[in-house]
């Protein structure tokens, strides 16, 4: 897939960065259906070309962010060698530099989040609550919300099971499964359906 054919998925003014980052490599880019397990991935193919897959369902700024993440893998491996850790210091330095280099692509309210994130990039998008909050758009159709928006005593459904929010333990929420009586810890950005 060419940079030109990616334009429908990307914010404006990204082609210069991509041409610069892609220039020395032969890369297969596959646009996939939405996957809940990952937003994108990178791997080197047996013919020494590279493959990046990215979910088609991502908003353009998030699509560019994920593409930058995956390209950082390629560039770090090519620069430092294949023995580096996939999300180690070499990747963090590469990804952080690329994010700052392309900062103008992002909206003004997202730029401070990107700058802060670039100082120590996380391997998993979900490990950055500020990014998750920024890119998550709740819709009427899914009725899901972050558990951190609920109050103590609220009932909610998670994976077809009903829970009671009992309170906060450090940064997580202690919740009781009403069918089994067992208690579980939920991260603040778990998406749940509040019971009315």
UniProtKB/TrEMBL annotation:
**Record-annotated SprT-like domain positions:** 48-94
Domain of life of the organism encoding this protein: Bacteria
Write out the GO biological process terms: response to stress
Please report the name of this protein according to its UniProt entry.
Answer: Protein SprT
| InterPro entries associated with the record | SprT-like_domain
Q: What is the lineage of its organism?
A: Bacteria, Pseudomonadati, Bacteroidota, Flavobacteriia, Flavobacteriales
């Amino acid at each position: 897939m060419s940079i030109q054919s990616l334009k429908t998925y990307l914010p404006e003014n990204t082609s210069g960065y991509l041409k610069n980052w892609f220039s020395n490599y032969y890369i297969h880019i596959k646009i996939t259906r939405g996957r809940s397990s990952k937003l994108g991935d990178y791997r080197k193919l047996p013919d020494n070309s590279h493959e990046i897959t990215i979910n088609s369902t991502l908003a353009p700024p998030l699509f560019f962010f994920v593409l930058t993440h995956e390209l950082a893998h390629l560039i770090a491996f090519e620069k430092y060698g294949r023995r580096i850790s996939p999300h180690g210091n070499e990747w963090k330095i590469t990804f952080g530099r690329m994010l700052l280099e392309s900062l103008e692509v992002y909206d003004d309210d997202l730029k401070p989040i990107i700058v802060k994130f670039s100082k120590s990039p996380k391997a998993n998008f979900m490990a950055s609550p500020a990014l998750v909050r920024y890119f998550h758009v709740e819709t009427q159709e899914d009725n899901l919300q972050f558990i951190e928006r609920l109050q103590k005593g609220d009932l909610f459904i998670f994976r077809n099971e009903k829970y009671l929010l009992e309170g906060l333990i450090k940064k997580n929420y202690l919740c009781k499964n009403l069918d089994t009586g067992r208690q579980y810890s939920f991260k603040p950005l778990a998406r749940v359906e509040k019971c009315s």
